[in-house]
Design brief:
The protein has 253 residues and is of the alpha/beta class. The protein has a domain at 83-253: Alpha-Beta Barrel (TIM Barrel). The protein contains eleven helices and eight strands. The chain has helices at 23-33, 48-57, 84-90, 100-105, 110-123, 135-139, 143-154, 182-200, 202-206, 217-224, 241-249, and strands at 9-13, 41-45, 64-67, 94-97, 126-131, 164-168, 208-212, 231-234. The protein has an eight-stranded parallel β-barrel, surrounded by seven helices. It is globular, with a radius of gyration of 17 Å. The structure holds 1,3-dihydroxyacetonephosphate. The site of 1,3-dihydroxyacetonephosphate has 14 residues, from strand 8.
């Protein structure tokens, strides 16, 4: 296992929020980050409609951009879908795959998520692969089983720290204001680290594991300081530059 600190990644998932006027939030983040070195890699995953404009608005800054989903194929007759290659072409360097909202709203199974992650890799994008248990699964004591199953089936065999990030997002913590206890987060992240290191060796010990689910300025410091928490995937609090910046700052060691 490597002992070097993994540089955190704080990624904002805007979900289905944001018209052109919201680009001002991204430019505010850009302006605030311009006078100092950010303590984390910073990413915004806007709706696909804003990706190219945001790439233009944040050019010359350290802000990375990501998509929120991609199709497994590189092109073809898939009305309404977006290929990983298209996200890359629009300015993304990463794409979220397997978010619980995609799994729930679109019936995405682990094998579909794995194909999407492989598509991201094919296109030269980092795959941010989301996993996490439902409330019922947690109450039934199944969290570690669910997470292990999702990891085993959602990650491509060829994944490495250069192209893959894992986001642990308990479904019941998303958008609810609820978070697991620090001990519970640490327990799950330790189990994820064990899986990644066992499967991918040294690369697996370096893959970033983000926590997501009701991360906000008031709890970010505590969550981001936990062992094996290498950053955050932030929903609602990423929509406002001030809140997002406070979370980015909370990632400083
Ligand atoms: P919230 O931060 O709004 O709970 O959303 C988390 C999330 O789903 C990020 O992908």
């Amino acid at each position: 296992m490597t002992t070097t600190r993994i540089r955190p990644l704080v990624a904002g998932n805007w979900k289905m929020n944001g018209l052109a006027a919201a680009l001002a939030e991204a430019t505010a983040v850009k302006a605030a980050l311009s006078d100092s070195v950010a303590p984390a890699d910073v990413m915004i995953c806007p709706p696909a409609t804003l990706l190219a404009q945001m790439a233009y608005a944040t050019r010359g800054s350290a802000i990375l951009l990501g998509g929120q989903d991609c199709h497994a194929a590189s092109s073809g007759a898939h009305t309404g879908d977006i290929a990983a290659e298209m996200l890359k072409d629009a300015g993304a360097t990463a794409v979220i795959v397997g978010h619980s909202e995609r799994r729930a709203d679109h019936g995405e199974l682990d094998r579909i998520v794995r194909a999407k992650a492989a598509a991201a890799h094919r296109a030269g994008l980092t795959a941010i692969v989301c996993i996490g248990e439902t409330k019922g699964e947690r109450l039934a004591g199944l969290t570690l089983d669910v997470v292990a199953r999702q990891l085993a089936a959602s990650l491509p065999d060829a994944a490495s720290d250069a192209d893959t990030v894992v986001a642990y997002e308990p479904v019941w913590a998303i958008g609810t204001g609820l978070t697991p206890s620090p001990d519970d987060v640490a327990e799950v992240h330790e189990a994820i680290r064990g899986h990644l290191a066992g499967r991918y060796g040294d690369a697996g010990s370096r893959i970033r594991i983000l926590y997501g689910g009701s991360v906000k300025p008031s709890n970010a410091k505590e969550l981001l300081a936990l062992p094996n928490v290498n950053g955050a995937l932030v929903g609602g609090a990423s929509l406002k530059a001030d809140d997002f910046l406070a979370i980015i700052r909370a990632s400083a060691p």
